Amino acid sequence: MKPIVKFLIICTALSSVFYTAQAYQGSQNKELIIRGEKLYMSYCASCHGVGGAGDGPVASSLKQRPNDLRRIQTRHGVFPAEEVGRKISGALSAPVHGRKDMPVWGLVLSSSDINHLVRYLRSIQRVYPPQPAE
Ligand code: HEC
Questions:
Q1: Is 114 exposed, middle or buried (0-12, 13-18, 19+ CB in 10 A)?
Q2: Are the C-beta atoms of residues 50 and 57 closer than 8 Å to each other?
Q3: Strand runs (DSSP E) across the chain, as ranges?
Q4: What does the pLDDT read at residue 68?
Q5: Do residues 69 and 56 touch, judged by C-beta distance below 8 A?
Q6: Nearest CA owner, ligand 1 atom 19
Q7: What are φ and ψ of residue 73, in 5° steps?
């Protein structure tokens, strides 16, 4: 076999492994985002709104309106995943979510639930110019 043919066969094999791995990762990530979405609809949408705009049915009776969760990345420049997780868990205080010593979601949700929620929130960011999904 000519070296160039060998080379091409190796390239083809490597790229198919690479693409399969990527597709697998992508589908796994999607699954986790969907789990996050379900949690979000159960626990968060009442205040933050189904789409995340801060227009849930409970929002107008709150002293402080919830922020638009689709604009976290726009406000911060990057999506601060760790900070968002800590705000949800209550480790970083968000007054309505409870204080650090009395967290609301940190008691109800497991740390993997919180990770799924963070992934979901990352997936609904509206950024201009649009960023490729991670
Ligand atoms: C009782 C209404 C209410 C519920 C339910 C609620 N939130 Fe919030 N949330 C708020 C309000 C109000 C704020 C904004 C004020 C603040 O930061 O303290 C907020 C802030 C946040 C922030 C910070 C936003 C930012 O720009 O930094 C995140 C992230 C968040 N909420 C996610 C969630 C998630 C995820 C859930 C579901 C597990 C949830 N919230 C449930 C009312 C609520």
A1: buried
A2: no
A3: 98-99, 102-103
A4: 94
A5: no
A6: 66
A7: -65, -40
User: Are 66 and 54 contacting, i.e. CB atoms less than 8 angstroms apart?
Assistant: yes
94 lines ligand 1 (CB under 6 A): yes
The domains found in the chain, sorted by start residue, are: 30-123 (1.10.760.10)
- Name the one residue in this structure whose structure tokens are 């406000």: 75
23-45 in b/e form (b: 16+ CB < 10 A) is eeeeeeeeebbebbbebbeebbb
User: Which residues make Cβ contacts (< 8 Å) with residue 12, sequence separation at least 6?
Assistant: none
What are the per-10-residue average pLDDT scores of the chain (134 residues)? Answer: 82 73 78 96 95 94 90 93 92 72 78 96 85 60
Rounded to the nearest whole angstrom, what is the distance from the C-alpha of residue 87 to the centroid of ligand 1?
8
The CB of 105 under 6 Å from ligand 1? The reply is: yes
For ligand 1, atom 5, name the residue with the nearest CA. Answer: 44
In this structure, the number of other CB atoms found within 10 A of the CB of residue 94 comes to 17
132 Cβ inside 6 Å of ligand 1: no
The reported pLDDT for the residue numbered 63 is 85
